[in-house]
Design goal:
Mean pLDDT: 88
Number of domains: 2
Distance between the termini: 16 Å
Low-confidence stretches: none
CATH topology of the largest domain: Helicase, Ruva Protein, domain 3
CATH architecture of the largest domain: Orthogonal Bundle
Number of strands: 0
CATH class of the largest domain: Mainly Alpha
Shape: elongated
Helix content: 40-55%
Length: about 120
């Protein structure tokens, strides 16, 4: 079994006993390079206009999880379809509009708390 949470401090201690969740691993939120790869991989089926610079987009997504990045692409594709049902590509403007709807799910305080939890020995690797 594999589980994921942004609130490891709320995991029931009974789940952490031997024989249950054997390993707890802290995974850093994606940095700009990881977000770019997430966007590139998730966007393979979404045609992007030549004005879309994934490096630039990824750099502006601090606090976005992998799921947030994927949701941003989906919303940008929907924005393009709303703009024109015949839209051939998702443009930089479509992505900018989508960012107004799809917000980062990780705030800086939450990320700091996760890092603290991960480094104080509460997570076994």
């Amino acid at each position: 079994m594999l589980g994921a949470t942004n609130r490891p401090d709320l995991i029931d201690p009974a789940l952490l006993r031997p024989g249950r969740l054997e390993r707890l691993v802290f995974v850093e939120p994606p940095d700009a390079a990881a977000r770019r790869e997430i966007l590139r991989t998730a966007g393979k089926s979404i045609p992007l206009s030549s004005d879309v610079d994934l490096d630039e987009v990824a750099a502006g997504l601090d606090g976005y999880s992998a799921a947030d990045c994927v949701a941003l692409l989906r919303e940008a594709a929907l924005t393009a379809m709303r703009r024109s049902i015949d839209a051939a590509n998702v443009t930089a403007a479509d992505l900018a509009t989508a960012r107004e709807t799809v917000r980062a799910s990780l705030d800086p305080l939450q990320v700091a708390s996760l890092r603290k939890f991960g480094t104080k020995g509460d997570l076994r690797s």
